[in-house]
UniProtKB/TrEMBL annotation:
One example GO MF annotation: D-xylulokinase activity
UniProtKB keywords: Kinase, Transferase
Species of the source: Sporomusa acidovorans (strain ATCC 49682 / DSM 3132 / Mol)
Limits of the Carbohydrate kinase FGGY C-terminal domain: 279-477
Pfam families: FGGY_C, FGGY_N
CDD domains associated with the record: ASKHA_NBD_FGGY_BaXK-like
Family annotation (PANTHER family): SUGAR KINASE, XYLULOSE KINASE
The protein's name in its UniProt record: Xylulose kinase
Family affiliation: Belongs to the FGGY kinase family.
Superkingdom of the organism of origin: Bacteria
Amino acid sequence: MSTKMNAIKNAIMNGKTVLGIELGSTRIKAVLIGEDNAPIASGSHDWENQYINNIWTYSLEDAWAGVQESYRKMAEDVKEKYGVTIQTIGAIGVSAMMHGYMVFNKEGELLVPFRTWRNTITEKASEELTKLFNYHIPQRWSIAHLYQAILNGEEHVADICFQTTLEGYIHWKLTGQKVIGIGEASGMFPIDINTNNYNEHMMEQFDELIASKNFSWKLGDIFPRVLLAGENAGALTEEGAKLLDVTGQLKAGIPFCPPEGDAGTGMVATNSIAKRTGNVSAGTSVFAMIVLEKELSKVYEEIDLVTTPVGNLVAMVHCNNCTSDLNAWVGLFKEFAEAMDIKVDMNKLFGTLYNKALAGDSDCGGLLAYNYFSGEHITHFEEGRPLFVRTPESKFNLANFMRVHLFTSLGALKTGLDILLKEEGVQLDEILGHGGLFKTKDVGQKIMAAAIDVPVSVMETAGEGGAWGIALLAAYMLNKENDQPLEVYLAQKVFAGKGGTKIYPEPKDTEGFNVFIKRYTKGLAIERAAVDNLK
């Protein structure tokens, strides 16, 4: 066994490793990291949400089956690679999809099936609370779900003893602690960044709003306690150890970091938690998270405010549509190639078509496209119709065709980010990109840099994802020196010397994107006509 393998084996045996578990929308993953913060073993389990009685949900049985299988596969990976059995771990962290609704009675039983972030059934609650608090409350936030259940007159509300989110629930069952990381808490209810806790004035407003219902609880009684990154969030109990490792090898007593949402772990995994930085995750959907230096001047329904895992304010622009339409067109080119008896390598096809876009006219030659498979709240569409439009004078060629589909995949995002960068004057030194749009070297970065006129970096570690991000937060709790800030720890201990590429915006590309976005904004009437008339 090599020296490095021996060192890893000793770290595993001596409990110097750290485990991160993330429950994502399609995959549950367990990642074990070593003393250098690099992954040394992993295991995963695929799962799917279900649409039952008009609610998007996952069952608790599926959640536990997935967590247990991910842990088991990770432990088997360790046994296979290093020849040892895991009995203890230095620290553990749990992450999951943010928001949603999970409520329990005093016996600890789930009162109604878990309502995930995907549900758009809380419109009235979202509108009323945004007005009451003068603070944007998106439909997917936990408080919107709670208030909608009250507006609906749902009987279970009277019996609520505890409300949390998915990772808060898993953490509670493993440690007995009803706590939540501040980043996830900020997706349950507005946070006061001066106290690093729920906004007390707004909590009082909510309690007054529902006072006539005479519930036995107030909001402060049922919400989890808020913790910051680096704080201890409890330890694995005997029951928790049996739940996580069904073979019974894992010992109780392992410390846990505060459970965090996928937005927070994404920020950590991309090293974008310092002020004046941000990250963009671009795949089927796209969202940008910008760490702010100060509060915004007013409420914008296009922008959600959450926090980093240490409580700094973050503006989040979330769009439902990104690469689905682009992928569909690439699929069409694949069909054409196969019809011509050409064997297609999908990586090569994507790479060729994406790179072709760089040869197009800076403004896409007058072409226009909308990638709306579903509705897009930023541009006020409740449904979507993918569209491609041109005039007889447009320069219709392959380069411009690919370029316009790459541009439009960031069209709604650009609309939201312009509010921050142009109307609010938010300063941004760099954006970190991750997700499918950035897989083809340089192309996604150049398009993104053109869209926002800010340098875009992609790191080699960008594919590690949220399970690695929450493992890093657990490692930070375990290994930080005194009051070492999280961004300093990440810069020095995790990302120092890590490779990556940084691409600066080119003036002609930025100018071209600005010409395109004017056309895009004006052409929204075409998209509206398609939604209204193409049923």
